[in-house]
Specification:
By secondary structure, the protein is mostly beta strands. It contains 1 helix and 13 strands. A hairpin with a 2-residue loop joins strand 1 and strand 2.
Amino acid sequence: MAVEISSPTRKVHGLDLPITGVYVIDRVHSNVEFSVRHLMVSKVRGRFTSFDGMIVIDEEPTASSVSVDIDTRSLETGEPQRDAHLKSADFLDVEHFPTMSYRSQSVRYDPSEKYWDVSGLLTIRGITRPVSLEVEVLGAVFDLSHAVRAGFHVESSFDRHDFGLTWNQPLESGGVLIGRKIELHMDVEAVRQP
């Protein structure tokens, strides 16, 4: 017999947080985007359209965990020729590495910045490196079927060279075609499993 849930949120250490449980990312209402410097003067933005993930929210929030798998073949920047290059062996090599993944290792709250610092391991092209995420909890609500949905905004960045993504081209005026810093932006809506 299912237990009736009276509220989608709970108060922990003065913070309003989603109730405990296993939450699955709703791909239709979430996005995974990235940006990188181009020609040293602007940014190119792209996204991945296929991904899966799970957030386990524990009674003690710092014992919670996150796991995400992204289909590298789903990359889109709005320019087919550039997309093909990014999927090639020069960059993501999607033929041999169709998935990039993230597995959290620790969670802590930063009261001065008002976000959750999630530390974990990011794997791209078979190379695994530590990467931290800044996670803002946006709240939790009941949807039309009375399931609990929680929202999160995620920011992160890393050096692409750490993952073997070193292709570049020098510019006549100095500098290079593509920056090393990749910025990640995710807006996540996740559904609590019964």
